[in-house]
């Protein structure tokens, strides 16, 4: 008799019906083989179902039920975790609530930048203030003027006006009490488009034609008609067009020298001149404003007369320019302030002379003071000629004309041949 298992198999595969009626429903064990599916097995296997959440605490009225998809919190197993460390104290260099580190290098750069800005404000602000105090003078010449020429030419005038000086100051400075004003110093500073600047002295006793006043010493033009007539006379006598005008008086000259703390001069020999109140030893020495004025004005004790005088004037002017532009002056706030304000109160500029031109003039004077410029005197034929105006200086007309023609072309390359 076939076994029960064989009967089951025969019935399952349809080989024969079960002799004992329908088979009751049976549950296959987990490892039993199921019916074969003819379709290929899917390549993707669905994820296993999430485990059923653990039962949580019962909800109470007024509270939300726990999220069935969220695993409820359970106390961690194992030993308790160590408490977090206390925050460490802020290291040096950290300040403020955020604990940001302040970089010393960055702080130093900011401080330096602030100092640079303040220095620039000081260097620019002081001259700007002084510029607002500068006096102006009408210097526009009359008559026909030379045309515009290359470069720039400045007329520098040292006036012997006693205006503003008390009797005691006139006596102290040895200026005398002559009424009116004349030019004690006349110079032309030419700045070419390229090449060396040239500082040219015109002796104040030069015998020239003064428009509307006949022939006379050139310094008389200032007494007859002030700056406009002097400028017209210079332009007519030289053929050069004057682009800028600067004038300084006796008192102003002394103030500028004293603001600089004096000027060092090296004397080739001792000087004793009662008229100029001078008693100086040979050698290098510091001259204050009063002594420096006497030194540049001295004439009787100089055997070369007016020619020696103009050389000392150029020497002094170059020394003043050199010291005024030195780092010691710029870095000394007291000296810088005094110099700017003394210069502003002491000089007068032409109506059309600009700040830019004054800067050009100052740089050119510094170049001359450094020995990189030319210092000349108008070529002279007779330094002591007898004229209708008394003893006067006569120019060498041919050489003087050639020199001024070179300057009018903006060419200073060959001017050193006129140096004496």
Automatic annotation (TrEMBL):
Annotated TM spans: 111-131
Stretches with biased composition (Low complexity): 59-72
Cited InterPro entries: LytR/CpsA/Psr_CW_biosynth, LytR_CpsA_psr
Pro residues bias (residue ranges): 43-58, 73-90
Keywords: Membrane, Transmembrane, Transmembrane helix
One Pfam family matching this protein: LytR_cpsA_psr
Domain Cell envelope-related transcriptional attenuator: 182-325
Similarity comment: family membership: Belongs to the LytR/CpsA/Psr (LCP) family.
Full protein name: Cell envelope-related function transcriptional attenuator common domain-containing protein
Protein species of origin: Friedmanniella luteola
């Amino acid at each position: 008799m076939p076994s029960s298992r064989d009967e089951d198999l025969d019935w399952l595969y349809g080989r024969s019906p079960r002799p004992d009626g329908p088979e009751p429903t049976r549950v296959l064990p987990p490892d039993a083989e199921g019916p074969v599916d003819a379709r290929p097995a899917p390549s993707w296997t669905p994820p296993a179902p999430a485990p059923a959440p653990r039962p949580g605490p019962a909800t109470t009225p007024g509270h939300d039920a726990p999220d069935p998809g969220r695993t409820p919190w359970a106390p961690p197993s194992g030993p308790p975790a160590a408490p977090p460390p206390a925050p460490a104290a802020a290291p040096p260099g950290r300040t403020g609530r955020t604990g940001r580190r302040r970089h010393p290098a960055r702080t130093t750069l900011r401080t330096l930048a602030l100092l640079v800005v303040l220095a620039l404000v000081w260097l620019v602000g002081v001259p700007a203030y002084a510029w607002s105090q500068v006096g102006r003078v009408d210097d526009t010449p009359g008559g026909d003027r030379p045309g515009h020429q290359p470069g720039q030419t400045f007329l520098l005038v040292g006036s012997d006006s006693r205006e503003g000086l008390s009797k005691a100051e006139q006596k102290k400075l040895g200026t005398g009490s002559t009424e009116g004003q004349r030019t004690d110093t006349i110079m032309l500073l030419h700045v070419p488009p390229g090449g060396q600047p040239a500082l040219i002295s015109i002796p104040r006793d030069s015998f020239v034609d003064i428009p509307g006043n006949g022939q006379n010493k050139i310094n008389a033009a200032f007494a007859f008609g002030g700056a406009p007539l002097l400028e017209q006379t210079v332009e007519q006598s030289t053929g050069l067009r004057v682009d800028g005008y600067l004038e300084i008086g006796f008192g102003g000259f002394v103030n500028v020298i004293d603001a600089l703390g004096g000027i060092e001069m090296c004397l080739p020999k001792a000087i004793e001149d009662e008229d100029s109140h001078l008693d100086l030893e040979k050698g290098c020495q510091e001259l204050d404003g009063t002594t420096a004025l006497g030194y540049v004005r001295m004439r009787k004790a100089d055997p070369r007369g007016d020619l020696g005088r103009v050389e000392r004037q150029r020497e002094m002017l170059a020394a003043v320019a050199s010291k005024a532009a030195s780092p010691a002056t710029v870095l000394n706030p007291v000296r810088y302030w005094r110099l700017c304000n003394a210069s502003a109160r002491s000089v007068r500029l032409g109506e059309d002379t600009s700040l830019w031109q004054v800067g050009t003039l100052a740089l050119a004077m510094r170049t001359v003071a450094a020995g990189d410029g030319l210092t000349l005197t108008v070529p002279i034929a007779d330094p002591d000629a007898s004229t209708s105006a008394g003893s006067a200086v006569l120019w060498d007309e041919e050489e003087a004309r050639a020199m001024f023609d070179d300057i009018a072309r903006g060419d200073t390359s060959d001017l050193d041949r006129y140096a004496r």
